[in-house]
Amino acid sequence: MGKENIKTKTPFMKVIKRHWLLLLMLLPSLLYVIIFSYVPMTGIILAFKRYQYNGGIYFSPWNGLNNFKALLISGKLGMVTRNTLLYNVAFIFLGVVFEMGSAILLNELFSKWFKKISQSLMFLPYFISWVVAGAIMYNIFNYEKGVFNHVITMLGGTAFDLYNTPAAWPIVIIFLRIWKQTGYGSVVYLAAITGLDQEMFEAASIDGASAWQKIKYLTIPSLMPTMMILVLLGIGNIFRGDFGLFYQTVRSSALLQPTTDVIDTYVFRLLIDNGDIGVSAAASLYQSVLCFITIMISNALVKKANPDYALY
Amino acid sequence: MAKEVIVMNRKRPMSRDEVAVNVVGAVLIGLFALICVIPFYLIIIASFTSESSLIKNGYPLLPSLTNFSIESYQLSLKNPVAILKAYGTTIGVTVVGTFLAVLLATMTGYVLSRKDFPWRNKFAFFYFFTTLFNGGLVPWYLLCVRYLNFKNNFTGLILPLMFSVWNMIIAKSFMSGLPMEITESAKIDGANDLVIFTKLIIPLSKPLIATLSLFSALAYWNDWYNCMLYITDENKFTLQYYLQRILGSAEAMRIVAEKSGIALPSIPIESMKMAMTVIATGPIVLLYPFVQRYFVKGLTIGAVKG
C-alpha cells in the first residue's frame, strides 16, 4: 500500500494526518465487514476438516478431500447447480425485460395519476416477506381450496395439483420472482431515466423522431450503464439461489426437489437438518468459488469490451 | 428545466405514435399492476370469510355478505400476548436496526464519495469484494453462534442486516451527486468532516435517507431467516417467523389451541392463516406513501469506483 501511495504522491502518514476523521468514520463499517465477511472467509478451511465441537473452526483435524468426496457421492450437486444456474439466468434475462420495459413505459405515460397508482401497486409485492408470499401461493394454488383451481373448474377444466407437479414449478417460481421484484427494479431504471438530459429528447422530437425511435435510440442506450451494473451483479450471484423464495414456497417438499432444489437450500439442509458441518462447508466453498470465477471472467470481458461498463 | 419540458409536452398535442405508446403502455402497465394487487385482495377477503365456507367452497374469488366473518381476527387477537410480543420484537428490532443501518450506509457512502480522499477506491473495493466472495453459510453460522453468542439474543436479529454493500453503493452514488463545493467551503470555514457530514450532508440527503430507511426497515420487518437460525425462545420470535410457524405446521395450531383453550377441530385454521398474514403484513405497507415521493430521487445506483 505504502509503495503505491508514494507513486501517487500522497505519503501514507500525510493521508492519515489529513483525513484521520474520515478514516474514523469508516471504522464502524470496516470492522463490520472484517468481522462478518473477512473473518468467515478464513472459515472455508472447514471444507477440508472434520469438524469437532472442541476444536472449532481452526483446531479441528484435517481430513483432506473427504468432504468433497461425500458431496459428490450424494449425487445431488449437479442437479442443484443446474437448477440454481437456470433459475438465475431466467431471473436476470426476464428481470431486465420486465424492469426496464415497465420503467420505459411508465416514463412515457402522460397521465400522472395512472402512473403513480400503478407504480405504487407494482411496488406492493416487494413489501412482503417470503413467508407472506408463501401464504399467498398457498391461497392461490392449494389443490382443494385454491383460487386457481376454483377458476379452472368454473371454466370447465380439471383441477391442477401444483404441489404434486414438479414440472410446473419453474414457471411458478420465475413468475413469483418477477411479480415480487419488478416494482423495485423499475424504480432503479426510472431513477436513471429521470437523470437523463431532457433536452436531448426535445431535440429529437423537433427533428421528427417518433416515440418508438426515441425509446429505441435514446432511452434504451442511455440505460445501458444501469443495466450492465444490475446484470453483472446478477451474474456475480448466478450460483446463489434466493433462499427465501425457494424455502418458503416449496416448503421442504422432497417430491418437488428435482426442479426446485438450489445450492442454498441444499447447503441449509446439510447444515441444519443433517448437522453435517464439513460437507455443507464443502458445498458452500464450491458455490463461492463458482461465483467468484464467474464474476471475475464476466467483469474482465465487459472491461475489455467497454471499460465504462465494468463493475470494478 | 425538467418541469418546463413537461409543461411543453402537455401543451403540445400528442402525435399519433405518442398516443400509441401511451395506449400500449397503459394496457401493459395496468395489467401488471392488477396482477400485483389481486393476490392481496384474495388474502384479505379470505381472512374475512367464515371457516365453514372456506372448507366447503375453498378460498373465495369474490367477497360475499353471507359468508362474512371476523371470527379469524377475533381468535387471532383473543390471546394477543404472543402476537403483541412478536410485534414488540419486530418493531424494536426494526427501529434500532434501521437507524444503525442508515447511519452506517450514509457515513461510509459519504467518505467514499469524497474526491479529495485518495484511498476511496481502495476502500470501496475492500467493501465490494465481500459481495464477490464469501465464506458461505457454515463459517458465518458458527462464528455467530459460537463466538458472537447470537443464540436467543437480539444482536442475532440486528447485526446480520446492519450493513449492506448495496445500500452503501446507493449512498455513495447519491452523495457523489452533491456539489463538492459544499464540503470545500465548509472546510475553509474550519468545519471538520464529522460536522460537515452531520450538519450539511445529512440535511441535503433526505431522499437518500428516506429510501435507505424504507429498504432497511423492510429488511428488518420481513426478516424470518435470522430468527429461524438464532432464536429458539418463543418470547423473542419476530412477527414473520411467528407467522411462518403458524402457517407451517398443524403443530403450531395445536399450541394456539392449548393456549386459547379451544378444542382443535373448532379452530378456524384456514381463515386464521389468512388473518395472521394480513396482521403480519399490514403496518409496513402503510409506510410506503410517506417515502414514495423521495424514491426515484434517492435510488440512483452508480459504479463502485469513482
Brief account:
Chain A is mainly α and 312 residues long.
Describe the protein in words:
- The complex is a heterodimer of chains A (312) and B (306).
- Chain A is mainly α and 312 residues long.
- Helices cover 72% and strands 0% of the residues of chain A.
- Chain A is built from 16 helices and no strands.
- Chain A has helices spanning 2-7, 12-42, 56-59, 66-74, 77-108, 112-123, 130-141, 147-154, 169-194, 198-206, 211-222, 224-236, 243-250, 257-260, 263-273, 277-305.
- Chain B has 306 residues and is mostly helical.
- Chain B has a single domain (72-305), classed as Orthogonal Bundle (MetI-like fold).
- Chain B is built from 17 helices and no strands.
- Chain B has helices at residues 2-11, 16-47, 51-57, 71-76, 81-113, 120-132, 137-147, 155-158, 165-176, 180-188, 193-204, 206-221, 225-230, 239-248, 250-260, 269-292, 295-298.
- In chain B, α2 (16-47) crosses α16, α5 runs antiparallel to α12 and α14 runs antiparallel to α16 (269-292).
- In chain B, 42% of the residues are buried.
- At the A-B interface, α2, α5, α6, α7 and α8 of A face α1, α2, α5, α6 and α7 of B.
Q: What percentage of the residues of chain A does DSSP assign to strands (E)? A: under 5%
Number of helices of chain B: 17
Helicity of chain B, as a percent range:
over 70%
Distance between the termini of chain B: 27 Å
H-E string of chain B: HHHHHHHHHHHHHHHHH
Draw up the topology in text.
The complex is a heterodimer of chains A (312) and B (306).
Chain A: H1 2-7, H2 12-42, H3 56-59, H4 66-74, H5 77-108, H6 112-123, H7 130-141, H8 147-154, H9 169-194, H10 198-206, H11 211-222, H12 224-236, H13 243-250, H14 257-260, H15 263-273, H16 277-305
Helix pairs in contact in A: 4-16, 5-9, 5-12, 6-9, 7-13, 12-16, 15-16
Chain B: H1 2-11, H2 16-47, H3 51-57, H4 71-76, H5 81-113, H6 120-132, H7 137-147, H8 155-158, H9 165-176, H10 180-188, H11 193-204, H12 206-221, H13 225-230, H14 239-248, H15 250-260, H16 269-292, H17 295-298
Helix pairs in contact in B: 2-16, 5-9, 5-12, 10-11, 12-16, 14-15, 14-16
